[in-house]
Amino acid sequence: MVDGGKLREFFSEAPDDIALDDVDLARLPAHLSIIMDGNGRWAARRGLDRSQGHAAGVDSLRETITACVRLGIPVLSAYAFSTENWKRPEREVNLLMDLFARTLVAELPLFHQERVRLELWGDLGALPAKTHATFMRGLEETAGYDTMVLALAVNYGSRAELARAARLIARDVALGRLDPKTVDEAAVAERLYTADVPDPELLIRTSGELRLSNYLLWQIAYAELYVTDTLWPDFDRWELLRAIRAFQGRERRFGGVAGA
Ligand code: FPP
Fold this sequence. Notes:
- By secondary structure, this protein is an alpha/beta fold.
- It has a domain at 28-157 and 199-248: 3-Layer(aba) Sandwich (Undecaprenyl pyrophosphate synthetase).
- Helix content is 42%, strand content 14%.
- It is built from 8 helices and 6 strands.
- A 6-stranded parallel β-sheet has the order 3-4-2-1-5-6, sandwiched between helices.
- Helix 4 (90-114) packs parallel to helix 5.
- It is globular, with a radius of gyration of 19 Å.
- The two termini are 33 Å apart.
- The site of farnesyl diphosphate has 18 residues, from helix 2, helix 3 and helix 4.
- Residues 36-41, 54, 57-58, 61, 80, 85, 99-100, 103-104, 152, 207 line the site of farnesyl diphosphate.
């Protein structure tokens, strides 16, 4: 249930170009997903280490989580670490893994307070033991919550996810649990990490890059895309409202015809 008082307070002191009243609270995306990009550039522009950009990115994520809870958006997902990100310098990978663990511990009280349920999408087995254990703790402690799902894609790649779904289907066929003739879109969808959430309706990418970067390729078939030049550490509640306003201004046709 959205608390109107908390919502108004959270979105008070609006800038000139956007305010809470500019979005229709009855037409919010059922699933909002974000490719958080630009932490490194944000740090470089300030003469800071990339790790400080990632640390600033955590603040943006926290603000976005709170904003989505206040608005009553049921599912928020974010791309935290891709299967390709292992190619980064070892030091940066280690710092990110450490940051994930520390952030999760630090933010658990927020999850409890707002009753946010954590989901993790990706091959978690490859994560360092401490990060893995912290994530497992987050999953366990929030399993019963129902205000909002926060899904973090960690060691996630869409092609790897689809290959995994194909393996699961092949296994079920081999075990005689599944008839190959019945393998349809639903059979694939229910074997993806995202099986229990609706597809994203709005995908935001920060830092101006016009790429999907192997993220939720199956699930975003009909998502509206919103790219902002804002770097992720500068993304805030007002940028979120601008994205939602743009989303609500789009005509969604799902392959049909206009106005039908
Ligand atoms: C992309 O910026 C950002 C990342 C690869 C990491 C995002 C992670 C966080 C914001 C921390 C989230 C915390 C948890 C617990 C999940 P980039 O480094 O690619 O930036 P650049 O393109 O400017 O170099």
